[in-house]
Design a protein that fits this description.
CATH topology: 2,3-Dihydroxybiphenyl 1,2-Dioxygenase, domain 1
Number of strands: 8
Distance between the termini: 26 Å
Helix content: 10-25%
CATH superfamily: 2,3-Dihydroxybiphenyl 1,2-Dioxygenase, domain 1
Radius of gyration: 17 Å
CATH class: Alpha Beta
Strand content: 35-45%
Order of helices and strands: EHEEEHEHEEE
Largest sheet: 4 strands, mixed
Shape: globular
Number of helices: 3
């Protein structure tokens, strides 16, 4: 079996674990703490078999908020995207885009965590075939 597991870098992994749990409802499943009490590696359950890892790289690393650069966002399916958005907002998440229905059958919103990582949450409204919205397939 093959599986992709995102590994996110945080300047403060312990704070990220607490915030991601409270705002997004993820569950902490593993935490390694070094001799200085810093969390060097952790893992979280995102539900429905999804998981991700967190680590503190040390050195000159700067998170997206401090560096001003972003090269990815995470996409997570949730049962009720509107309720999820309100939970995140109440926990202090910056809502980048409000919940909206998309032509490809999802209702989505995007938010940003305190270190600047962006998260895209969605609820499946209906299955949509690519030809229904004009997508061009690169497959031959």
């Amino acid at each position: 079996m093959e599986q992709v597991t995102p590994y996110l870098l945080y300047e403060d992994v312990a704070a990220a674990l607490d915030w991601l749990s409270g705002a997004y409802g993820f569950k902490e499943t593993l935490r390694f703490t070094d001799a200085n009490g810093r969390v060097s590696h952790a893992e979280m359950d995102a539900g429905a078999g999804g998981q991700f890892m967190l680590g503190e790289p040390g050195g000159g690393y700067r998170n997206p908020r401090r560096s001003g650069h972003r090269n990815a966002f995470l996409h997570v399916l949730v049962e009720d995207v509107d309720a999820h958005c309100e939970r995140a907002r109440a926990a202090g998440a910056a809502i980048v885009s409000e919940p909206a229905d998309k032509e490809y059958g999802l209702r989505t919103y995007r938010s940003e965590d305190p270190e600047g990582h962006q998260w895209d949450f969605a609820t499946l409204l209906r299955e949509v075939r690519p030809e229904e919205w004009g997508a061009v397939s690169a497959r031959t």
